[in-house]
Amino acid sequence: MSELVILGLPPSSYVRTALMVCENKGVNVRLQMVNFRDPDYRQHHPFARMPVLQHGDVTLYEALAIAVYIDEAFEGPSLQPTTPVDRARMMQWISVINEYVYESVVRSCVSERVIKPMRSLAPDEAVIEAALPEIVRCLDVLADALAEGPYLCGEQLTLADLFLAPIMAYFSITPEGRTMLPDRPALGAWMSRMEDTPNYFKVNFMSTD
């Protein structure tokens, strides 16, 4: 059996999603650190992003393609719904997370509060302040959905939850997260359920050195 390798860096929420998919499938995986600014890295990903999957003669980039491949290529509990409408709703949530939640929560808050200090840079408070209305909107949409079921797609843990989990893990350690999350108990209960998934803390609070 060929080794499954994820190319990327620990701080990336999308790398963490790929690793969480592996953990929830029970798949052994090796994280290989990369310098994505090295021009040679573009032979793996033409846009120099993370993660990249290597599995035998298979190389894939983009987190959604990687997540679907791992779920379908390996044995273990399915992380995708079986009916067309439920599968479409899962994809809808992943799109919402990538387009709206990531952009407001990660790019405008987590990057300022968590990533910049790693580089000895001060956060830009104006950027965070400007993003707060959209962050509130995203949290409310998520909380409303999670009030109707334990996971984003109802009773089943799916890839959508694994795209959201690393983002919320990051957000929970920011001042904004510590203020906003307790006001949304359905979202907090979902986070507690995610913490019970395999190696949640190992993946989402790994060393970022």
TrEMBL record:
<protein>
    <recommendedName>
        <fullName>glutathione transferase</fullName>
        <ecNumber>2.5.1.18</ecNumber>
    </recommendedName>
</protein>
<dbReference type="InterPro" id="IPR010987">
    <property type="entry name" value="Glutathione-S-Trfase_C-like"/>
</dbReference>
<dbReference type="Pfam" id="PF13410">
    <property type="entry name" value="GST_C_2"/>
</dbReference>
<dbReference type="GO" id="GO:0004364">
    <property type="term" value="F:glutathione transferase activity"/>
</dbReference>
<dbReference type="GO" id="GO:0043295">
    <property type="term" value="F:glutathione binding"/>
</dbReference>
<dbReference type="InterPro" id="IPR004045">
    <property type="entry name" value="Glutathione_S-Trfase_N"/>
</dbReference>
<dbReference type="InterPro" id="IPR040079">
    <property type="entry name" value="Glutathione_S-Trfase"/>
</dbReference>
<feature type="domain" description="GST N-terminal">
    <location>
        <begin position="2"/>
        <end position="78"/>
    </location>
</feature>
<dbReference type="InterPro" id="IPR036282">
    <property type="entry name" value="Glutathione-S-Trfase_C_sf"/>
</dbReference>
<dbReference type="Pfam" id="PF13409">
    <property type="entry name" value="GST_N_2"/>
</dbReference>
<dbReference type="GO" id="GO:0005737">
    <property type="term" value="C:cytoplasm"/>
</dbReference>
<keyword id="KW-0808">Transferase</keyword>
<feature type="domain" description="GST C-terminal">
    <location>
        <begin position="83"/>
        <end position="209"/>
    </location>
</feature>
<dbReference type="InterPro" id="IPR036249">
    <property type="entry name" value="Thioredoxin-like_sf"/>
</dbReference>
